[in-house]
Every structure is written in C-alpha cells, then in structure tokens.
C-alpha cells in the first residue's frame, strides 16, 4: 500500500508541483489510510 501511495503522490507532485502536492496530501491519502486502518483493526 505504501508504494502505491508513494507513486500516486509523486505523480501529483509532478502534475501540480511539490508545494500544491503537499497541500493536497491529507486529502489524497484518505483512501490509502482507510484501507490500512481497516486492515489493522480487522486483526482484533
């Protein structure tokens, strides 16, 4: 999952520039974070 998000974020940075890419980080990472959180909590 980390490599998928890293690749996605690199593409965003290339498309809009690193400054705007960083501003969008917390919006863009939501689907990846949700999957990882669900995977973690499904263990319990």
Q: How widely separated are the two ends?
A: 20 Å
Which range does the strand content fall in?
Answer: under 5%
Would you list the SSEs in sequence order as H and E?
Answer: HHHH
Structural class comes to mainly alpha
Instruction: Give the low-confidence spans.
Output: none
Mind describing the biggest β-sheet?
Answer: none
The helix fraction, in percent, is over 70%
Radius of gyration: 12 Å
Annotation field: number of helices: 4
Number of strands: 0
- Supply the number of structural domains: 1
Shape: elongated
What is the oligomeric state here?
single chain
- Overall mean pLDDT stands at 80
Key traits:
mainly alpha, 44 residues, 84% helix, 0% strand
Question: Could you describe the 3D structure shown?
Answer:
The protein has 44 residues and is an all-alpha fold. It has one domain (2-6, 13-41). 84% of the residues lie in helices and 0% in strands. The chain has four helices and no strands. The chain has helices spanning 2-16, 18-23, 25-28, 30-41. The longest helix is centred in the N-terminal third of the chain and has 15 residues, at 2-16. It is elongated.
């Amino acid at each position: 999952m980390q490599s998928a998000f890293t690749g996605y974020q690199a593409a965003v940075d290339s498309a809009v520039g690193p400054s705007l890419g960083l501003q969008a980080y917390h919006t863009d990472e939501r689907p990846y974070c949700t999957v990882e959180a669900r995977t973690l909590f499904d263990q319990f």
